[in-house]
Amino acid sequence: MMVLDRAATILDCLDHYAATQPEAPAYTFIGHKDEDRQVLSYGELQRRACAYAAVLKQAGLAQRNVLLLFPTGLDFVIAFFACAYAQAVPIPANLARNSHHYTRLGQIVKNAGAVAVLTVAELRASVAEGLAADLAFHCEPPASASASPVLERPGPEQLAFIQYTSGSTGVPKGVMIRHGQLIANERAIQSVSRLDEGFVGAGWLPQFHDMGLIGALLQPIALGGHYLFMAPMHFLQRPLRWLSLLSQSRAVATAAPNFALALCVQAEMDERSAAQLDLSALRILFCGAEPVSATVLEQFEAKFARCGLRPGTVVPCYGLAEATLIVSGGTTTDGLRSLDVEGKALVSCGPAVRDHRVAIVDPESRAVLADGQTGEVWFAGPSVAAGYWANAEASAATFAATTACGQGPWMRTGDLGLLHGGALYIAGRIKELIILRGRNLHPHDLEASLREALPALAKAAVAVFAVEDGGPSRVVACIEFPRRDRAAAGLDFPRLCREARAVLMSAHEVRLEGIVFLYQGGIPRTSSGKVQRHLCAARYLDGSLEDHRLLLHSTRLSVPSCLEAIAP
What we know:
Residues 15-389 form the AMP-dependent synthetase/ligase domain. Helices cover 33% and strands 25% of the residues. The chain contains 18 helices and 27 strands.
């Protein structure tokens, strides 16, 4: 039996490995250069976290909510575990880069009633100015400690942290994760990965995001492993650096969203680079956090097969913050990786994780649907979060659902999907459905058609959404080019508009009534990189989407001119 199997909290795992392998590396942070490395052992992690916890307890922060604002690195890890040892409730958050980000942070602070900020000294002044709130700041965790102070450990029913997500109105909602729910999800992840104690993992995912925090940073601690990581920006600047890290470290596990695989597929790789890349040690690459493309999956595996990447190493999975993290993943007995549903290839996200259940339910009648029928994905099990902080109405609607036959409670995901052969296939978001004349259209389908039919969009991000301003819904596309793609400025945009309209009319009988072309940074996204289509629509209507600093071209059309433009 592994330590994880009998642990009540993640601290049980850290305490065990700090005692049995104190000199073993827990984390290695890699800076701008590959040789710029900072290593934190299990013993040092526990000592420094406990010493910091003593400071937090003395400051009266036990049972209080505190904001964690750190650049990527070991300071965040120490602060997170310090909060656990102090029984404070950490709120991991992304560092603000502009006034919009500080507005969101301010909403989080207000909703959570946060009383303190943990950060680094060099950020204190800018964070204090940006938040403009009465908060205590703690910026100097002890550099070392000779021994760990005696601290009472939290129980499984106590809050481990609050994960804020973007609500449908743009107002963040705080998902409350208890220690018992966290450790249950760590067990669920291991049940899919089958990783052994002491495994080596590597990656770049944001430390404040659920996939990066729970799946990347905490899973190694749960299993006494070693996690090597870099900042997300370093991956974005050079995607193949991630794969080089996997090769150099002989990592057996990693995780990334679909867009990361797409960037690696697009990245240029000469014969010499390919020969130096050895991915034969990699046993699992979890792919989640956004819809997984069957095409991207195939292209990634085909491109890196010559580097030792084995078939089946990439494992699509599905999860969300309200489930702590993972809901489903792995392979099924039928061996299917994708399923054709109404002409669309849906990727298998595997069966529900161990000790949990998934049901597909009609969101209106709440009737449980049969295999092969599309409905809302409902989830139940020990990983389901405790609810939303200070939001009883939303908590009841999401976490206390019952089916028409009285089964419950279930957690409603807000995602559309179906079950086939025991595996879950995700079809899209209910709230992102585009409804035109009684037809339900998934934005992902329209976006995929544009990307596949128009070579000029090969490196572009595409967001299709509906806008409503008192009349019928209108479909608009926002197309975002990388800043480094200066050739984008020379495109024939009027022609590209005509082609885009023709594609959607031909493939989906959809009239595209507006197109905005932007440089990178124009499409609103969550902290994890997900496109926020509802914000795209709101900003399109108020004109702020067409930011002159990023705007390449914009076309707004009436229905007649749109029909004229796409007529044969």
